[in-house]
Amino acid sequence: MEPIAELKVDPTRGRVFEHGWQSWSTTTTYRVDERPHRPANEANRILHYRPESHPTEEAFHGEGLLAVDPGDGGPITVFAAPDARTAVPSVRAEPRGDRLIVSADGPVEHHEDDGPGGLDGALARWADADAQRAGVGELRPAPTVWCSWYHYFTHVTEADMDENLAALDDLDLPVDVVQLDDGYQTEIGDWLSLSDRFASLEGMVDRIRKRGRRTGIWVAPFYAGARSELAARHPEWLVQGDNGPVVTGHNWDQDLYALDTTHPGVEEHLTHVFATMRDWGIDYFKIDFIYTAAFPGHRREEADPLAAYRRGVQTVRRAIGDAYLLGCGAPILPSVGLFDAMRVSPDTAPHYEPETGELAKPGSRAAMLTGRARAFQHGRFWANDPDCLIVRPEVERREEWADHVARYGGLRASSDRLADLDDWGLETTRRLLSQAPPAVFVPSA
């Protein structure tokens, strides 16, 4: 870290905006005298934050973006990567009395913004300029979605999909896309091999189409689970460390490896998987855990991890053509210009408080905190996905979560078993799916 600025701040009124690395990394604004949220343990740091960064509680830490309101009526100072598509420097701001010592580990541009709207306004104006640099064109309207995840999780069956497909008609809900989430595949990485709970995705797509709706699907394209046939047959496709494949996390009761998106075999594999699904008639793709393509390690080509990441996403885009593309678990700033929509927070959950209280873990409190802080990205970079609406009776603080989705949801998706909704839940689901949110910035509360 090299010092780049020293700012005078009011220790109790000054505020620092800290932008996290990927979708699930905590992003919010703190008072200068507050201490920032940090991962509870090493496993969660690897899964939810930038793996090569080690931010401390003693300093604020932004990945490619950090902003400071001095709290004395003076201008906002925005520190940002010149081009986050090629490099994302970490930016640190260390409080020292009435000063903030700002440093970075790479080139950072910074400018003062004295326009209206405080931090929100300054971030919005920065995002306008960044979207223009990235060549973001006109954004497509987001479809409305029903998603299997937040009721069935990995235990979803083909019968569950059919039940809710019929319920959409019976309840006359305005849903464009019926999206199958995790649980249909045999293993993580073996996307065209089905679990025994599914007979045919092609048949399911056909039934959805006959009811006048579109089909969406969840894929974690850059992962290969340790139990997968993919990892067993093609160990040469995995990003390597000094002592074998890089382990990018542990989930689904197995170690998870990263695919080397610079390898011709991986490019061919990704093209085959997504082109096959597109040929089935799927035209909405949620690609998840995609930070793994930017994991440090040795690749066939000596590509920078960010270049490898963008190359992988571009391979997916070519294979799906004009289908709608939603990112999740994605490095945020390097993804600008690649997606139609983006998850801008950690997962919500039927419970309010995340497990262990860690704000990168699932829970509606964590999702609301970071979703509000990234509101300025909606309509500039993509349609913001605040995560799914879940409003069945057992969901904690469901009214508060529904209000958050109504205010910050650029892409709206229901994820309850529809038969479980009470009158309030059904009315709320119908109302929010019926209202097309504008592609404009919504100031944070």
Query: How far apart, in Å, are the first and last alpha carbons?
Result: 33 Å
Main-sheet strand order equals 23-22-21-20-14-11-10-24
For this structure, the quaternary state is single chain
Beta-strand share of residues: 15-25%
Number of strands: 24
Biggest sheet character: 8 strands, parallel
Can you tell me the residue ranges where pLDDT is under 50 for at least 5 consecutive residues?
none
- CA-based shape: globular
Pairing-aware structural class of the strands and helices? alpha/beta
Rg calc? 21 Å
Q: What is the overall pLDDT average?
A: 95
Can you give the helix content as a percent range? Answer: 25-40%
Count of runs of 4 or more consecutive helical residues:
11
Describe the structure.
By secondary structure, the protein is α/β, with parallel strands linked by helices. 28% of the residues lie in helices and 23% in strands. The chain is built from eleven helices and 24 strands. The protein has helices at residues 42-48, 118-134, 149-152, 158-171, 201-210, 229-233, 264-280, 305-320, 364-373, 398-408, 423-434; strands at residues 2-8, 15-18, 28-31, 60-63, 65-69, 76-80, 90-96, 99-104, 109-113, 145-147, 177-180, 185-187, 190-194, 214-219, 223-225, 240-241, 244-245, 247-251, 254-258, 282-287, 324-327, 341-343, 383-385, 413-414. The chain has an eight-stranded parallel beta sheet with strand order 23-22-21-20-14-11-10-24. Strand 20 (282-287), helix 8 and strand 21 form a beta-alpha-beta unit. It is globular and about 65 Å long.
